[in-house]
Amino acid sequence: MNKLIINGGIPLSGTIRASGSKNAVLPILAGTLLADGPVIVRNVPHLHDVTTTMELLGRMGVQITIGEKMSIEVDATHLKNTFAPYELVKTMRASILVLGPLLARHGTAEVSLPGGCAIGARPVNLHLMGLEAMGADIRVEEGYIRATAKRLKGARIVMDQVSVTGTENLMMAASLAKGTSVIENAAREPEVTDLANFINAMGGKIKGIGTDTLRIEGVENLTGCDYRVLPDRIETGTYLVAAAITGGKVLVKDTDPRLLDAVLAKLEEAGAIIDIGDDWIELDMEGRKPRSVNIRTAPYPAFPTDMQAQFCALNAVASGTGSVTETVFENRFMHIQEIVRLGANIQLEGNTAIIKGVANLNGAPVMATDLRASASLILAGLVAKGETIVERIYHIDRGYDHIEEKLACLGARIRRTTD
Ligand code: UD1
What we know:
- The protein has 419 residues and is of the alpha/beta class.
- The chain has helices at residues 22-31, 48-59, 86-89, 99-106, 125-133, 164-175, 190-201, 233-245, 261-269, 308-316, 334-341, 371-383, 394-399, 403-409; strands spanning 3-7, 13-17, 35-36, 39-42, 63-66, 72-75, 83-84, 108-112, 137-141, 144-148, 156-158, 180-184, 205-207, 213-217, 222-223, 226-228, 249-253, 273-276, 280-284, 295-296, 321-325, 345-349, 352-356, 365-367, 387-391, 413-417.
- Helix 8 packs parallel to helix 10.
- The longest helix is centred in the middle third of the chain and has 13 residues, at 233-245.
- The mean pLDDT is 95.
- Residues 23, 26, 93-94, 120, 122-127, 161, 163-166, 191, 305-306, 328-329 line the site of uridine-diphosphate-N-acetylglucosamine (UD1).
């Protein structure tokens, strides 16, 4: 099984490029199911979740051609079926994103229920409730969501809870529905905005983009387009924390600083000197140790839950005591016990981790439990004394493009083994 072996203690230094956003490219690839005609998607990151999505689309009969420079052409004009099997959906929850587009364009979809996952129950009730409001007939049987609709009808949907993929699924469905839909309490994450811009590039009519009220006028059909995926703000933030935790200086280019306000504010509070341009961010720690920060996760534009684990690692070696409160998912602290194995001092009290910074972490074998948890273990390994072995790194390959190459570019001693 693949492992990463890290010899920590080197301040990272240098320049890397941010890849395209995982959480934007997955809904956009699902959204290609809405189009009559080929769609070109650019800035596609090299990720296992992207491969899984391409396999899922391929099995439905979608034509996929890999182009040059991280582009792919996707043509879903002629589908063979509208089936998303358990064996693929269970490895990637975001597969649920095919439900809305399939139903809207083909009037039928059979998609496996994603099931539980390491970071909480993560139900899909909001997705189903919204599609039913648009007139879909939905049955959940034998572990599958079986949905049919002659043609979806526009509806006013108030989301009980802010849901990123829930908003995305309903926005895609509404784009081909008859009449106008309004989604209230919609997620405002930049990746939702990117999907909305993509749908409009295909001829959709979505208004209120970037706000919590989306107004979607359904159209008769959507056509192919050429679209560039936005940069990955979570990947960018992870490399900035890598610089901060090791006392280094790193420039991330081809990114978008406007998407990272809450994260950059916390890094400055931790003592980092941050400089930004239109499409780059430089973080300089000037060899200093970070100061502890208090974090509370919440939907965008507040601090992202997908950066919570990385800041737990940062606080573990910071001066002072910091608290990290998780409000989005009910069980997203699996990384804490692993960071403790490296010598961290962390107490869990309900949904808050109280982290007292220690002078040093010491390398040890640790196990990744989910995508962002694996990132936090790598960060901790980069600053720990001696050798840290991170097992089960298939999680990291789902969401980080060439992570060990990028870190090695910055001077980290990191390698992959397959023993
Ligand atoms: C997306 C992101 C993930 C990120 C999360 C929160 C993708 C592919 N994944 O996940 O990286 O951590 O947003 O920013 O974009 N909920 C319900 N019922 C539903 C749907 C959600 O109760 O039908 C709850 C969830 O259990 C959770 C909360 O709502 O507590 C937010 O989840 P949601 O925004 O839906 O997360 P995802 O879209 O799965």
